[in-house]
Amino acid sequence: MAQFLFEADLHGLLKLDTPIPNAPPARWQRKAKEAPGPAPSPMKPANRSHSFSKTPSKTPGKSGSKIQSTPTKAGGDRYIPNRSTMQMEMANFLLTKENDPAEESPTKKEQQKAWAVNLNGFDVEEAKILRLSGKPQNAPEGYQNNLKVLYSQKMTPGSSRKNSRYIPSMPDRILDAPEIRNDYYLNLIDWSSQNFLAVALDNSVYLWNHASGEIIQLLQMEHPDVYISSVSWIKEGNYLAVGTSSAEVQLWDIQQQKRLRNMTSHCARVGTLSWNSYILSSGARTGHIHHHDVRVAEHHVATLTGHTQEVCGLKWSLDGRYLASGGNDNLVNVWPCTQGGGGDFAPVQTFTQHQGAVKAVAWCPWQMNVLATGGGTSDRHIRIWNVCSGACLSAVDAHSQVCSILWSTNYKEFISGHGFAQNQLVLWKYPTMTKVAELQGHTARILNLTMSPDGTTVASVAADETLRLWRCFEMDPIKKKEKEKANSAKSSIIHQSIR
């Protein structure tokens, strides 16, 4: 009952204030007042409530039994035009007549043209670009559009656009490296494929697990005067080669944390090491490079004599075809692959353009015959070589001592570590050789660089006894997923072919 009364009051308010949808026009209301009975409606309202007919509407403020209907507004509650009475033909005629140029007299046209020329300096009709019909006309001779400069600028070419990739200017992590030897010719850090970072601190070697943060002391030399001069991981990451100042090359098993063998063939300290499958190459202070076959008892299988001073840079190419060596004699030698056997071996290329010691040597991961080298304090240049043709592809002055170079596997870039006098890391775009970013934080010269197995993080150790991790090659999440998908597809194809 209450709901019914509420609906009745609501419909009463609608009667007083709001026009009812589908209500008859005013003329039908007037006929309804004059007729004694209910008037026939031309439109039957849909879902009309019975409260409209049963509930009377009274004028507020007056008493009495007289029933008063809702007052009618003048002219009806809305306007509905009668399109049948509109003179469409007349309107069309007037529009056509207004736009018809034939109606204008020649004298009037000349007057309008003269006014336009005096006011604007040109005829508006001849300079119109947008027209309802016909082709747009050309601008008159001598006319200049000031807005044309804004819309005729060329877009910035892709090569000169600002790099949108975010490169953190601060290190992701800083680790202490006490008692690290401040020696330019040594190679004291290396990062394994199993995510272990090996650091040589004086006469000890420590392993840092990047995933868990665990630190393990792998070894310590028995004699206090003997120090570690180089470390290098095998590709699989389960064995670590260690070079010492006593001319030894040791091989360590990481899982068991024990020494497997001790190889002695040099007569001076071993400052650099590099792996090529089961062949371990070592460079000594005498300028000799020895190849060790770690599978056999007679490990010393070859000797390379191409340097007259200490060998401080040594790196095998990713495909195992060439070995690049840099020495304190300012030479860069490229050696062919030798799988055992004695005899004398000659380099396929020798580069003499550097004017300082060459410690930084790195092979391009996507162009196997491209080699990057960096010179010391008296040279300070980074040079890119084609080892097949012997041509120097490019050279750039780094304005500081070049200690190490690493190529990125995620971008067409490489990073260089420097000593005197900036002590910074520099990211370079290849092949344009333009600077992408500079990373500063070390207070002394950088000694070595190494890269994480995923190619996103670079570790730098310096004479300030700190080791810093820089996330300078972080991949975009979308590109990272695409790369992982491509790698998984390649691995599945390999497994299928093996099966």
TrEMBL record:
Span list, region Disordered: 16-80
Gene3D superfamilies named among the record's database cross-references: YVTN repeat-like/Quinoprotein amine dehydrogenase
GO MF terms, alphabetically ordered: anaphase-promoting complex binding; ubiquitin ligase activator activity
Residue stretches making up the CDC20/Fizzy WD40 domain: 175-470
GO BP terms, alphabetized: anaphase-promoting complex-dependent catabolic process; cell division; positive regulation of anaphase-promoting complex-dependent catabolic process
Any one Gene Ontology cellular component term annotated for this protein: anaphase-promoting complex
SUPFAM superfamilies associated with the record: WD40 repeat-like
The keyword Membrane is annotated on this UniProt entry: no
Coiled-coil region: none
UniProt xrefs under Pfam families: WD40_CDC20-Fz
Spans of repeat WD: 228-262, 304-335, 439-470
Keywords, comma-separated and alphabetical: Cell cycle, Cell division, Mitosis, Repeat, Ubl conjugation pathway, WD repeat
Biased composition (Polar residues): 48-72
CDD domains per record: WD40
Pathway the protein contributes to: Protein modification; protein ubiquitination
The organism's place on the tree of life at top rank: Eukaryota
InterPro entries the record matches: Cdc20/Fizzy (IPR033010), WD40/YVTN_repeat-like_dom_sf (IPR015943), WD40_CDC20-Fz (IPR056150), WD40_repeat_dom_sf (IPR036322), WD40_rpt (IPR001680)
Family: Belongs to the WD repeat CDC20/Fizzy family.
Functional summary from the UniProt entry: Substrate-specific adapter of the anaphase promoting complex/cyclosome (APC/C) complex that confers substrate specificity by binding to substrates and targeting them to the APC/C complex for ubiquitination and degradation. Recognizes and binds the destruction box (D box) on protein substrates. Involved in the metaphase/anaphase transition of cell cycle. Is regulated by MAD2L1: in metaphase the MAD2L1-CDC20-APC/C ternary complex is inactive and in anaphase the CDC20-APC/C binary complex is active in degrading substrates.
Record text on subunit structure and interactions: Component of a complex with CDC20, CDC27, SPATC1 and TUBG1. Interacts with NEUROD2. Interacts with dimeric MAD2L1 in its closed conformation form. Interacts with BUB1B. The phosphorylated form interacts with APC/C. Interacts with NINL. May interact with MAD2L2. Interacts with CDK5RAP2. Interacts with SIRT2. Interacts with isoform 1 of NEK2. Interacts with HSF1 (via phosphorylated form); this interaction occurs in mitosis in a MAD2L1-dependent manner and prevents PLK1-stimulated degradation of HSF1 by blocking the recruitment of the SCF(BTRC) ubiquitin ligase complex.
Protein name: Cell division cycle protein 20 homolog
Gene this protein is translated from: CDC20
